[in-house]
Write a structure and sequence with these properties.
The chain is mostly helical. The protein is built from nine helices and no strands. 80% of the residues lie in helices and 0% in strands.
């Protein structure tokens, strides 16, 4: 809501397109962090009800990623497909961002109950483990995007949060093994 309000009240700064693209990207990465934090929080605090929010948060993360991509394609590139392809080839951080979006796409497409039934629980769960690859691509996208301005505070912060969420899973898996 803040981004919409800021856009309509002309409070996005000197470069509103960049502010909108970056803001949507920030919310995408925040949504991914929250989605991956659900399981550790649910287990550590014995709150099984949190599980209900994981799929919803994942879908909202995809919505923000889609808006981030659309804002880039429309506001930066004028929806010119050849310019977008050229930009992807020229700037690796955009290529990695597209890879992140490509990894999110099948997860969003199969995040509905009908897809779970059609795929079967085991195959659906295997497909949705792709979510563990997305933080690596998303963080690389973020780091490389900020490299030009030597501003690494936010990418470091989100990388640390992803490391905690994914590290907790690795620790838990090894903790469960006998001996």
């Amino acid at each position: 809501m803040w981004l919409v309000t800021a856009a309509f009240t002309h409070r996005l700064g000197a470069n509103p397109a960049e502010a909108l693209i970056r803001g949507l990207g920030d919310w995408t990465i925040r949504g991914l962090v929250l989605t991956l934090a659900i399981t550790p929080l649910r287990v550590q605090f014995h709150q099984p009800a949190l599980l209900r929010f994981r799929r919803l948060l994942g879908v909202w993360t995809f919505v923000y990623a889609t808006l981030h991509l659309l804002a880039y394609a429309w506001l930066d590139m004028g929806l010119d497909l050849l310019d977008i392809v050229g930009d992807i080839a020229k700037r690796p951080f955009i290529l990695v961002g597209m890879l992140s979006f490509g990894l999110l796409l099948p997860l969003a497409a199969t995040s509905f109950n009908a897809a779970v039934r059609r795929l079967g629980g085991k195959r659906w769960q295997t497909l949705h483990r792709v979510v563990y690859l997305i933080p690596f691509a998303a963080c690389l996208h973020f780091w490389w995007m900020r490299a030009g301005k030597q501003n690494f505070a936010d990418p470091f912060f989100y990388s640390a949060l992803f490391a905690l969420a994914l590290g907790w899973r690795v620790w838990r898996r090894f903790k469960k093994r006998p001996g």
